[in-house]
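Retro notes, item 3 of 5
We never archived the inputs for the glutamic acid complex last cycle. Fixing that now. Sequence and ligand:
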Amino acid sequence: MNDSLVRTRFAPSPTGLLHIGGARTALFAWLYAKTNSGSCLLRIEDTDKERSKQEFTDEIINSFNWMGVNFDEDVVYQSKNHDRHLSVAKELLKSGKAYVCDCSKERLDRLRKEQQEQGLNPKYDGKCRDLSLSESDNTVIRFKNPENGSVIFQDLIKGEIEFRNEEMDDFIIVRSDGAPTYNLCVVVDDLDMQISHVIRGDDHINNTPKQINVFKALKVESPTYGHVPMILGEDGKRMSKRHGAVGVSEYRDMGILPQAFMNYLARLGWSLGDQEIFTSDELVNNFSSGNLNTAPASFSLDKLTWYNKEYLNAMEFNDLVDLIPSEHIKNDQYSKNVIELIRDRCNSLNDFSTESQYFYNKPEVFREEDKNKAIKENTLNLLSSLSERLSDLAEWKSDSIQEEIKVFVEEQEIGFAKIGIPLRLSLTGSLNSPSIDKVCELLGKEEVIERIDFALKSF
Ligand code: GLU
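Structure as it came back at the time:
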């Protein structure tokens, strides 16, 4: 391998949906690789047989495909490397860097309790460290962590970090059931996948010195590490279901555009001057020139919606039409006109479906509270006269419709709202819509008259 080649990875455990935090970490790992003309690999850490599910792996992969984060090379499944993990554990045993421990659970529980009572951090006391025990049914393999000195590393994001060895444990690398543990598997896989930079969430920061020590014990160089701060909700608490959707696929299903999602995630914790909008290529080209924040980022749905709106506004009309997930919107001129008219009001792809309902379905029921707002004394008479005026209108264009309503309002000596609100309710079934003359033009004269007639009967 070329020494200067950047190889990063994202290593999710497939035990749930891909969360925003994980997606952002993966995005940074991917951008870091791409900005350095390197590769970013996906490793599925599926060693927990009970909690790992194929459906979550599929969901993780689909979410990245949707986001436009394309990993290089084949997906690595950690469970397939089981024998290799064990053989490295044996290698460490042979070279005296690990040892067999037969301490019972009772002894370890007692030890922990005593240490806690003395106000110490619980830690294995090294009873079996020099006993050279042989493996048997109830034994585990522990890593022989150095007793003195420190592990110092230069974190890509947080700068220099130091951990004292004496504060670290002789952690278990193979359990009594023969299962290799996380800190061993990760080191072996990162080594075998020739990972040069491990960019991951800072919830793993305490694992890093352990892993660096294992790399040292194997007499190989450890990767460079970068720990990405967490994403918090707007209340400053760790992002969770309470803050709304946390799964990437949930945002896709809400009608968020992948470009907007990627842009927002990148900006959560990374900046380049004041620029907000970055295409995927711009992110790749500029990632190394920007700044990564050391403080946690705070997620805002409003901000994501803002990005989404920016991307929706900038999108080519025909591309937009193809993306709208709606049963009623078709690729015909009427639907195109509808989309054009409601575009300003839509913040997500799904909004096009809800905002356009009344162009395809006549309003059938009116909410009492809307009727209370729209129907005042004389409203029905006014609506009925306007309907007659509109039905006599020679040219059915929004300008002439607007003019006709204006003249009507002047003649009747009423404010626009007096007729505008009931008219809007009659035609759309709600009190909010684009400009009513434009709605009239699109619906067509016959439909408008029919809807007013129906409303007059229902009001
Ligand atoms: N599988 C671990 C997790 O999902 C990540 C391991 C790593 O990045 O080193 O938290």
